Known about the structure:
Elements: E1 2-9, H1 15-33, E2 36-43, E3 49-51, H2 58-62, H3 65-72, E4 77-80, E5 85-90, E6 97-101, E7 104-107, H4 118-126, H5 135-142, H6 144-153, E8 161-165, H7 166-171, H8 173-183, E9 188-192, E10 202-204, H9 207-220, E11 223-228, E12 233-241, E13 247-248, E14 253-254, H10 264-269, E15 283-285, E16 288-291, H11 298-314, E17 320-328, E18 333-340, H12 348-353, H13 358-377
Parallel strand pairs: 1-2, 1-7
Antiparallel strand pairs: 2-3, 4-5, 5-6, 8-11, 9-10, 9-11, 12-13, 12-17, 14-16, 15-16, 17-18
Amino acid sequence: MKTVAVFFGGRSAEHDVSIVTALASVIKPLEMSKKYRVEAVYIAKNGAWYWSDKLKNIALFTSGEIERFMARTKPAGVQFDGGGLVLTRPAGFGGRVQRCVIDVAFPAMHGTYGEDGSLMGLLDMAGVPYTGCDMRSAVLAMDKVLAKQVVQAHGILTPEFQFFTRSEIEQDMAAVVKACKKALSFPLFIKPAHLGSSIGISVAKNETELRNGLEVAARYDNSVIVEVAVQHLIEVTLPVIGNTDLTPAFLERPMVKADDFFDFETKYMSQGGKKGGGKQGGKQGAQGYSEIPAKLDTKLYEHAEATGLAVYRALGCRGMARVDMLIDSKSKKVYFNEVNPLPGSLYAHNWRLKGISNIELVNRMVAMAEEQFRERQQVDTVFSTNFLKQF
């Protein structure tokens, strides 16, 4: 039986969201499949790694007991053995050590040092198959600026934008604001360039709100993007699975007010937070009530779906990702917004309606991880030379 290690937590503003994704949407269905030995690997906010079956219990985290657990538990050791990744931990007295050889890694870490390609790079070096996007596509997907530049190069529409570093904002706010007002028009969205879960995002309808939004976003990232709001807005999102042969889920439309946006509070703290959402025919998902499938005319639906698949391919996504798009309902134009390389809850509610259970979903992801690993193994990364003999 293969060992699948699920990584979650991490040094990220999305640490807590990661815990819920891992325990509810990854570990549980993997164990229910009875195909794998599932190991929980929790990475604390200080970067320490812990490996224990106790970490599979959500109560450990909701009760605050996790702090006492870490205080009395030695962090796990991590070894590279030349062809894989091995976890170690003390096993009783006499200095004995328990080892766990990871056959497949399942990253469930949102945001910084996980979803952004950092963990994927480590797993590449260790020679371990892993689910989801590879390092390069994760880096692109999690960088809103790079992602927009790449899709623009592929002829895909995206709202007009400007981007700035934290140092530019801190050293000369007036120049940043002037550049935004010259190139863009209100209302504007201000976002940290590398975060998901809508953390640090704000909307500005005037200069004062723009300044405030820039300050907030710069607290969470060293790069900030400012973009024009799409008029007559319909927001849609498209989960996709696949390496080369792609399968889209339903195009989904979050049910929010026309003048609102899906912030962290709406997504995770209030389960949608919109009174009467259930009366609008929506489905209860990880982010509240959504319209699944989105009620668009056939031509527009197909255009948006095709755009989402084109973005997935342009960024080189693998395994799974979710493509967010913005539609101007008047002009019928579809704009790329951003890509989430690790959708919260894996968007299991949408796949379930598509006929793919959570168990089948995670099984497919493990299979795609092994397929992707075999492809990577066909690429030579070393080269023999006589270079050193000249010294």
